[in-house]
Amino acid sequence: MRSFLVAMTRNPLSLLGTAITTASAVLIVALLAIEYLGFHGNPYVGILSFLVLPAFFVVGLVLIPIGILRERRRARLAEERGEAPPEFPVIDLNLGRTRRLILVLLVLTAVNVVILAAATYKGVEVMDSTEFCGTACHSVMHPEYTAYVRSPHARVKCVSCHIGPGADWFVKSKLSGAWQVIATTFDLYPRPIPVPIRNLRPARETCEQCHWPTKFVGDRLKVVTHFDNDAENTELKTVLLLRVGGIQGRVGQGIHWHVDPNLRIRYRSDLTREKIYDVEMTLADGTVKTYTIEDAPPEEEGEDGTPMEWRLMDCVDCHNRPTHIYNMPGEAVDEAIRIGGIDRSLPYIRREGIRALKEEYESHDEARRGITEAILSFYGDSYPDLAAGNRAEIEEAARRLGEIYATNVFPAMRVGWGTYPDHIGHVEFEGCFRCHDDEHATEAGETISQDCDTCHSLLAMEEEDPEILEQLQP
Ligand code: HEC
Ligand code: HEC
Ligand code: HEC
Ligand code: HEC
Ligand code: HEC
User: Fold this and answer.
1) Which pLDDT score is estimated for 224?
2) Which residues line ligand 5 (CB under 6 A)?
3) What is the pLDDT of residues 107-130, one digit of tens each?
4) Per-residue pLDDT at 349 exceeds 80
5) What percent of the chain has pLDDT over 90?
6) Which residue of 224, 426, 436, 452 sits with most ligand 5 atoms within 8 Å of its CB, as the best mutation to test the pocket?
7) Which of 24, 71, 142, 224 has the greatest count of CB atoms below 10 A from its CB?
């Protein structure tokens, strides 16, 4: 026993190991205590305290026996050379000293295990935090994080959708996460990050942890406010009664009919899932119908030899942007005018705002400068009196436009307007019309309907004072 301690403290490697382990243990305990007292640092402190320090801790622990083994080997070699044989440790439990030493070792081991367990637990917690996923790697997740914090899911952790519960996906995600850390460190990641995410966990095991797929939503009234590109920025309202549906009794209906657990829709598409070739529908009674487009490429490969996939339709095939919601310029400017962020009385502000947003800029700062210049010079040239008298409103509008740019376009990640399509609807992107185009047909000639009333009643279409709204809000 004594020689073990001697071996541990006499050879430099073990000594180094002891020092590293002790130092990182003290630091981990201190940081845990600080956190316990309620101080929460930024993600870097988290990474340092619960990922880097434990690594040092373990390295130190490993160095100790390596040092001892090396020491032993040296001693054995010395013996072979005929030098004095090393004494083998005699463990005599009758000696009080030995008993105390064993006790000390056991206690130290227990303490080590506790520290390591606590650090591992914290490490996992740190890695699962929104701050770690969303901000630790700076520019990489900047677009996703920016879009996420102003979405309906801003309080839902990244891991709830991207990993979900259970050990197998946890391990899978840590493996791919390790690669992501390497890719980020050595700048090997693609820009923009490609979608769809091929190995995203099926929605059944993520979204459906919180959302009940058979919930009956029924019809949902949706009022969309647009503005015209005229001098008055005329307000136009579209009113839709969306047939979201769900399960009523035992019968699925409306838009959420697709996720009725009693039926199954699969589709074959190119890898972007933008171009859908075949749709196979299996109903509860076992009937199978297959809708195909003319000139669908053969099963094996896509148009330019690109591979294809069969996929079981789930929530994410419509709700592919439940939280990373990027707006198109028109949508975003309409919204800013609607909530009063951009002064609607500025002539042509919608048209000019969209024009300025669609220019190319190298960075957010350059965009803010360029947009302000464009807006100021438009009013300076066309409305000099207004430009002088309403300078504050014009500058505020330009500032808002810069903000819109910076929350939707990310030059550093090559994310531009429309880089990430949204599959709900059909106006900016194909969305529902990827299948509902009246061109996917069964052999009997049945098509997937594009009839406007299948999905919604259009109660008003870009009207200034829709009658239906007068009726609803007299
Ligand atoms: C409500 C569920 C949900 C949450 C919460 C969520 N994501 Fe996503 N995420 C998705 C879905 C769905 C996609 C799109 C998958 C597709 O198109 O294949 C996606 C896509 C992405 C992509 C691919 C690029 C893109 O913009 O589509 C990245 C990167 C990403 N998420 C990171 C994050 C980070 C970081 C967080 C936390 C800050 C987060 N996600 C939170 C559901 C979620
Ligand atoms: C951890 C729980 C949780 C998970 C996981 C989750 N959601 Fe949600 N989702 C919510 C909550 C809570 C709301 C309501 C937010 C509100 O009303 O402000 C919501 C709202 C929504 C809405 C309505 C948004 C709106 O504009 O009102 C949609 C659509 C949606 N979720 C789809 C999804 C999809 C698709 C997934 C899986 C990729 C998902 N959710 C995963 C909790 C979750
Ligand atoms: C066929 C496309 C499609 C599929 C598949 C789909 N949804 Fe939806 N969902 C919609 C549309 C369209 C709306 C209405 C959107 C709107 O209000 O702008 C909607 C609305 C919602 C809402 C808001 C409902 C409310 O109370 O107003 C939630 C939550 C939601 N979906 C969750 C889900 C979940 C979870 C799944 C998977 C089990 C799913 N959806 C599958 C198209 C789909
Ligand atoms: C992968 C292909 C596919 C996509 C994408 C798709 N659908 Fe469908 N949808 C179908 C098929 C197949 C049917 C059944 C054939 C039919 O009724 O025309 C159907 C039927 C429907 C129905 C009638 C349901 C009923 O009560 O019988 C509605 C409503 C509908 N879809 C809405 C939508 C909306 C809204 C979207 C986009 C958010 C969408 N679908 C996207 C394949 C698709
Ligand atoms: C397969 C289902 C489906 C069919 C068929 C369909 N729509 Fe839609 N449409 C939608 C959905 C879903 C939305 C809502 C998207 C959202 O929530 O923003 C929408 C939105 C709209 C909007 C509002 C767009 C906006 O934001 O201003 C208009 C206008 C519209 N549809 C017109 C039509 C017309 C005209 C037809 C017939 C040619 C049609 N739609 C057929 C599903 C459909």
Assistant:
1) 96
2) 224, 238, 240, 424-427, 432, 436, 450-452, 454-456, 458, 461
3) 887 788 778 778 777 777 877 888
4) yes
5) 52
6) 426
7) 24
